[in-house]
Amino acid sequence: MSKFERPRIFRPPSEWMSYYLPLTSGCSNNTCTFCYYYGSRLQMRDVNEIKEEIDALRLFKDKRIAVPGMPHMVYQLANQWDGRRIFLQDGDALVYPFPKLLEVLDYLNERFPNLERIAVYATAQDILRRSVDELKQLSQRKLSILYIGLESGDNEVLQQVGKNTTAEEMIAAAHRVHDAGLTLSVMVILGLGGVDGSVQHAEASGKVLSKMDPEYAAALTLTVVPGTPMHALIERCDFVPISPFQSLHELRIIVEHLDVTHCFFSSMHASNYLTLRGTLPADRQKMLAQIDKVLQKKDPSMLRPEGLRGL
Ligand code: SF4
Questions:
Q1: Ligand 1: centre distance to CA 270 (Å)
Q2: Is the CB of residue 87 below 6 angstroms from any atom belonging to ligand 1?
Q3: pTM above 0.70, yes or no
Q4: pLDDT per residue over 259-296, tens digit each?
Q5: 117, 100, 96, 76: which is closest to 26 by C-alpha?
Q6: Are 73 and 19 a contacting pair, CB within 8 Å?
Q7: Which atom of ligand 1 is nearest to the CA of 151?
Q8: Ligand 1 and 223: CB distance under 6 A
């Protein structure tokens, strides 16, 4: 087996306090044309290696002793970790073989009995592969929040960007997560339909998000990663990216269309031009007014500068 390569950290803003524990590296669906993981090789980490890292973390938290040979990153993360939350890396760590996933979760709970929650990125396929009962077994072990990238509610866009999932599968996966009593957080990407598909992408995303009815939803803005097919399309002028203000139009359409039970919606990710947060449906008018104010003034200084945007 080739040596496991510790992945770069990409995490939702709400996981900034978590300890990032890699179970996999890469993503099982490495075909999304805009994504950093495009063409990545999925690696499964050996369970014993994961347990060794958990042991090293426990030892460091208890006695400040560092185990020789353990990656420096472990201690960098441990130094700022408050012991409450764990985020399982990588792009869709729910793909990790189920019995081994349970073994890791049991070990984490045994070594850190005071953990509040464990989180993971998951694809719709990862979720639909598991029964409600299996998902409940995860929640019993504190893996209680799943982050899913819907990216777009428009099947045409999903197909164009190589997501290998349909909006209908996303909705089915969301229902399964709800049935298992897990918390769902869903991400959409502003600008993924380009200029031509902008309105259709935003309207469909709002509608599908509503059917998924997540507890949390977040908008990110397309950030072009050099070396990806999306980057090449833009270079060839075969995909015209939306402008920063157009991204706010999309944000507005999504907020307007969101018909959800109770959802904390935000655009706090570093890729966005405008930071917005609020609970829907209660804060809808307030959030729309905030977007409208920026759209009316069209003052670029009200937006996050391009150089400060991040993945
Ligand atoms: S499924 Fe998600 S993490 Fe994987 S390649 Fe697509 S966008 Fe990237």
A1: 18
A2: no
A3: yes
A4: 999 999 999 999 999 999 999 999 999 999 999 999 99
A5: 96
A6: no
A7: 7
A8: no
